[in-house]
Amino acid sequence: MQATTGDQLLIHGRTVGAGEQQAEILEVRGDDGHPPYLVRFSDGHESLIYPGPDTEVLNPNR
After folding, report:
1. Which ranges carry the DUF1918 domain (predicted)?
2. For the chain, which end, N or C, has fewer CB atoms within 10 Å of the first or last residue's CB respectively?
């Protein structure tokens, strides 16, 4: 997975009934756009994450 600052992550729920979460990438801390990413979720909290296979990168400029 590769991303840049400003991209969005769409994290799909892993279990039935679990909703999707969306987060904005604030900082890419890995090499060449790879995780970990510092993100801000839509509810305002920030976290350092290593996205799993249930995550899509959305780039509004592509």
Report:
1. 1-57
2. C
